[in-house]
Amino acid sequence: MAVVYRAVQEPLGRTVAIKALKSAAALEENIATRFEREAKSLANLQHENIINVYDYHQERGGHFIVMEFVQGIDLYDLLDRCGRLPYDVAAVIAVQVGRALDYVHYRGVVHRDIKPANIMISRAGGVKVMDFGIARDQSFSDLTEAGTGIGTPAYMSPEQVLGDRLDARSDIFSLGVVLYQMLTGRKPFVEDEQRSAMHKIRLEKHVRVRKLNPDIPRELERIIDNCLEKRPVDRWRSAQHMVMALERFLAKHVEINHHARLVLFLRGQGVISELEADEHLNPSALGQGSLAQPNMQARHAVRRGWIAHAITVGMLILMLGLIHLAPLGATPHTPTTMVNGQAVVAEQRGFVLVHAIPWAEISIDGKALGSTPIAKAIELTSGPHLVRFEHAWYQPVERTIDVTSGTTEQAIRLAVDFERDGLLLPGKQIPKGGTP
């Protein structure tokens, strides 16, 4: 409906973008009204993750919005270039979009068209949400007729497909679709010969991201799954809740400034040059003053390699020690203890560590031992034992283990994930926004 020009605003000498409504579109009153409302809505929004509007102008039947010019690349073109993004980069982009949505939702605005083409990534590492052309602002009457779906089909929420009245949670669904696409290189709901994308959005479950990319952490997968719930009541209660979850994730996976992480990624993809990157990178923001610092994924991979190497070396040293210390031809020693002056074979014991997601009541051989998390290893006699995991919302799980004698370092590790295995009891429903 519009064309965007790059221009210079006089007398400030400031580079700006001018969005001009096409002549054919300007003849339609509904479209012209939307265009003017977009300018008025954006003029009242001042946020670092939202494109700034400087002016609105009408002349000779033409409609023009003068707005901030952002040097960079939109997410649509970036995905076209890269296919998919590293999970830390995707989370950094999503958290900035989420902050913009939280800001506009608080002010009664629903964007209704969150998609890669409307997300701009600047050369300085900032993220800007653009194009509020079909946004619903409670300050104005809604121009969309009841029962009419408006938006970009692959990114629409189920209620948007049906033409229902939307609230902030519709934008959260759309952001979940964008985050899914950034991580996997594909949209979660794609049209095929049998079903349209909108049919799948309404009725079909998406393929979980870890099936397409096993390197994605489970925590990030759960954030996406919460966004893509069919019913709005089952999604994040607000964009702020989603932002908080993403910030907790990023605190563990990105140890440098988030803008710097995006700049380094853009440099690595050839979107910006070394010289352009150096203009925006502050060595103190990168940690230890090094521009060549690897991202957290690389650091974790190196750390895992060193741990595996250390374990291997330790095992070799232990084996060599046993060979030198054990006398040749010696018979195995059976532990004994003295009872009434007679030697009796001592009872051998081992250990087990238990863990449950989200939590469970633990009993072993019918004896209750308390609730997880149980940090200390449980001491048991050698031989078979029955471990039972119980949770009020899920079906109980039983596991049989064969304990052998050993130290706490050699403890058997036993874990149950109720959420992953889908063992929810009939009639139970996960509380809004979290795990029971």
Topology:
Blueprint: E1 2-9, E2 14-21, H1 23-26, H2 29-43, E3 53-59, E4 62-68, E5 72-74, H3 75-82, H4 87-106, E6 109-110, E7 119-122, E8 127-129, E9 136-137, H5 158-161, H6 168-184, H7 197-203, H8 209-212, H9 218-227, H10 239-253, H11 258-268, H12 274-280, H13 296-325, E10 336-339, E11 342-345, E12 349-357, E13 361-364, E14 367-371, E15 378-381, E16 383-391, E17 394-403, E18 412-417, H14 418-421
Parallel strand pairs: 12-18
Antiparallel strand pairs: 1-2, 2-4, 3-4, 5-7, 6-9, 7-8, 10-11, 12-15, 13-14, 13-16, 16-17
Helix pairs in contact: 4-6, 4-10, 6-9, 9-10, 11-12
**β-strand number:** 18
Kindly name the structural category.
alpha+beta
| Strand content bin | 15-25%
Rounded Rg: 29 Å
Question: What is the residue-mean pLDDT, rounded to a whole number?
Answer: 84
Looking at the overall shape, the CATH architecture of the largest domain is Orthogonal Bundle
Structural domain count: 4
Shape: elongated
Distance between the termini: 48 Å
Helix tally equals: 14
